[in-house]
Structure formats: C-alpha cells, structure tokens
Specification:
Structural class: mainly alpha
Order of helices and strands: HHH
Strand content: under 5%
Number of strands: 0
Distance between the termini: 58 Å
Oligomer: single chain
Length: about 70
C-alpha cells in the first residue's frame, strides 16, 4: 500500500498548475494548453497552431485594437 505522502508531490503540482492558469487568466496572458485542448475537443478538423504561432497571434490580436486598451 502506498503512503499518502507518495501522492503529495502530484497534488502540489496540480495545485500549482491550477494557480498558474488562474493567474494567467487574471492578467490576460494566453493559455496555450487550454487553447489546444479546446481546439482538439471542439474543432477536430482544424489545425492547432504551434505554441509560437499561438503566442504571435495573441500578441498581434492584443495590439491590433488600439481603442481596446486604456493606456
């Protein structure tokens, strides 16, 4: 039988991953893993962008609308 401590590192890693994802959503940083999972689940016929393409597209989207920002 495994001790409860054997699961502790995985539990902490899941908590850290969830906290990091929440922080990215709060500050508006793109979340590639969420995007890729959504594309595979909801749009299986479409190509998933690479991590670099995704980051570049999000950056372009962010700065393409100058009136959408306060500063």
């Amino acid at each position: 039988m495994r001790s409860p401590r054997a699961h502790a590192p995985r539990a902490w890693q899941r908590r850290l991953d969830a906290a990091a994802a929440a922080l990215r959503r709060i500050i508006g940083a793109p979340d590639y893993e969420h995007y890729a999972a959504h594309m595979r689940a909801c749009h299986p016929g479409q190509q998933v962008l690479s991590r670099d393409e995704f980051a570049r597209q999000r950056l372009e989207d962010r700065y393409a609308r100058p009136g959408a920002r306060c500063c």
